[in-house]
Write a structure and sequence with these properties.
Blueprint: H1 7-29, H2 36-43, H3 64-79, H4 84-96, H5 104-116, H6 137-143, H7 147-159, H8 165-182, H9 187-200, H10 217-230, H11 234-242, H12 248-263, H13 270-275, H14 278-293, H15 296-300
Helix pairs in contact: 1-12, 1-14, 3-4, 3-6, 3-14, 4-5, 6-7, 6-8, 6-14, 7-8, 8-9, 8-12, 10-11, 10-12, 11-12
This protein binds manganese (II) ion (2 copies).
The site of one manganese (II) ion has 6 residues, from helix 3 and helix 12.
């Protein structure tokens, strides 16, 4: 990549991406599995972090999306490098801790690691959920701005649980968008990158937007693309996304990384940050610091 960037700018965008992800998770979880119509009749426009939802969360509590990303982040910090086994070990510890939520494909993959030491799930045409995409951010931060490292990390972490060409395509595209955005690319550039994905996998076309926000990674990414490219601020992107309902914590988490990396820390509403679990936010801040310092961009300085 040939963007001009400075490390402080990357650091700010990285922090905003990770905190934005956690905010999207906590915000969206309240309306997860509701339809857009149900949300509208209950809340008008839903825009505050209040907890509840089908998981009966505390306000600001995060779910598997943020927790699995933190498993990856902690593994990188602890191993002082990329270790797939350390990541899978953290997933295993996390699953045994009886997390508040865990998707079926993630559970199946982690159980296969626990029982057989399997680090790569066999290819499966049905494993096209969004579980590999929702947690990939630490791999993105730790590889910035090296595109080859990015692609390797993204796919390796994905295949622990999801080995599927549609999931892979979504994960790679999302990771690349995040790299570009962290380095300061404009939305027009990011949009062209998504057009590249759509030309290879036409299912990802999001114009006209079909309004589906399920856990199928195609629906998830269409929702994120639609609201990210339509929104004019972090807040607008996020509110549009979660009010779509469906897998709202995960669409919220993914849109949160993208919009956070694009708009930076100053764009994130204070009222949302204040509602978040403070332990989660401080762990995120410490971890992001380490990931960026140890990334190729950090090492070049
Ligand atoms: Mn979740
Ligand atoms: Mn979800």
């Amino acid at each position: 990549m040939f963007y001009k960037y400075n490390l402080e700018d990357i650091r700010d965008r990285a922090r905003a991406a990770f905190i934005g992800m956690a905010i999207g998770d906590a915000l969206g979880a309240t309306v997860e599995f509701m339809t857009a119509t149900e949300i509208a009749s209950k809340y008008g426009m839903f825009k505050e972090i209040i907890g509840g939802g089908w998981l009966r969360l505390k306000p600001g509590q995060v779910t598997d999306d943020t927790e699995m990303a933190l498993c990856i982040a902690r593994a990188i910090v602890k191993s002082q490098g990329w270790s797939l086994r350390a990541i899978a070990d953290n997933f295993a510890v996390w699953l045994k801790s009886r997390p508040v939520d865990c998707g079926d494909t993630c559970r199946k993959g982690i159980r296969a690691y626990i029982l057989k030491g399997q680090l790569e799930s066999p290819p499966n045409e049905w494993d096209a959920g969004n579980g590999a995409a929702m947690r990939l951010l630490p791999a993105v931060l730790f590889s910035v701005p090296d595109g080859e490292l990015l692609n390797r990390y993204i796919i390796e972490q994905a295949h622990i649980t999801h080995n599927n060409p549609v999931s892979d395509a979504a994960c790679l595209c999302l990771g690349q968008l995040l790299h570009m955005s962290l380095c300061g690319a404009e939305k027009s550039r990011l949009k062209r990158h998504v057009e590249g994905l759509v030309s290879r996998f036409p299912a990802f076309a999001y114009v006209p937007y079909r309004g589906l926000a399920t856990g199928y990674v195609v629906d998830t990414m269409q929702t994120v693309f639609n609201w990210f490219f339509r929104g004019a601020s972090f807040e607008e992107c996020m509110i549009g996304t979660v009010n779509q309902g469906g897998d709202a914590d995960t669409t919220g988490a993914i849109c949160g990384m993208l919009a956070g990396s694009y708009y930076g820390m100053d764009s994130i509403p204070r009222r949302w940050i204040k509602k978040m679990d403070t332990r989660v936010i401080s762990e995120i801040e410490l971890t992001v610091e380490r990931l960026i310092t140890e990334s190729p961009a950090g090492r070049m300085m």
